[in-house]
Design brief:
With about 230 residues, this protein is an alpha+beta fold. It has ten helices and seven strands. The strands form two sheets. A four-stranded antiparallel sheet has the order 6-1-4-7. Strands 3-2-5 form a three-stranded antiparallel sheet, with no helix packed on it.
């Protein structure tokens, strides 16, 4: 939880210890730990609540601890970004929403926890995990490609490619492997034809699917299906 004090003053306590934040300051704390708040004068605040897992996704690892008081100038950047978001019309574009969320989380981290520098390696691992979750949820979208995925995570296509190159992979190779794994599941549990499976999982046609599937699993799809059913 981040609480930005726009005007006035408030105090927040955990246990016997108190922290005070005045206009132009902010408090960051984990909601895992109970807090008490005291306001003795008219005060205007702004709240930002985000799950810790979301910070993990962008490589900003938060550890439960006592509240942290943030001050300018980093806080001013966060406030300006929040003002910009509030002025934008509601959007149903998932890629825009994800990019804005990631930017907000990283800015919160930089403004509120400058004492905890980002670990570039951890950032890369977390971003790749977030990208893969995004891809897993959209594997049946035939138009899914590097441009859409990069935009959804606030990355250039080159930066996205580097996320996979660091482990010797490519984005297209990982996407294809994930789709082939779904084809394999459908061969065992379903009755769709190869043509239908190719359409469902983004392959050009049944021949293209057969070549790719044989290259990974050593058997053409129809033979894989027959053997799986014979042993079930």
């Amino acid at each position: 939880m981040a609480l930005i004090v726009e005007s006035g003053e408030l105090s927040l306590a955990q246990g016997e210890r108190w922290w005070c934040a005045r206009a132009g300051q902010a408090l960051l704390w984990s909601t895992d730990l109970a807090v008490r708040m005291r306001v003795t004068q008219p005060t205007t605040t702004r709240h930002v609540l985000a799950p810790r897992a979301a910070f993990d996704d962008v490589g900003c690892r938060l550890v439960p601890g006592p509240p942290h008081v943030a001050r300018l100038p980093g806080l001013q950047l966060l406030r300006s970004f929040l003002d910009t978001l509030a002025a934008l019309p509601a959007s149903s574009a998932t890629d825009v929403e994800v990019a804005a969320r990631n930017a907000l989380l990283e800015l919160m981290w930089g403004a509120l926890r400058p004492d905890l520098p980002l670990d570039p390696r951890a950032l890369g691992i977390s971003r790749r995990a977030a990208v893969e979750r995004f891809v897993d949820a959209r594997l049946d979208d035939p138009g899914l490609g590097v441009e859409e995925v990069a935009a959804a995570h606030g990355l250039s296509t080159r930066s996205l490619a580097r996320l996979f190159q660091e482990s010797g992979d490519t984005f297209s190779g990982v996407l294809r492997a994930k789709r082939l794994a779904r084809v394999r599941e459908d061969l065992v549990t379903g009755a769709l034809s190869l043509e239908a499976l190719a359409r469902r999982w983004g392959f050009v046609d049944a021949s293209h699917l057969t070549r790719r599937f044989r290259g990974v699993y050593g058997l053409p799809p129809h033979e894989y299906r027959m053997r799986a059913r014979a042993t079930s």
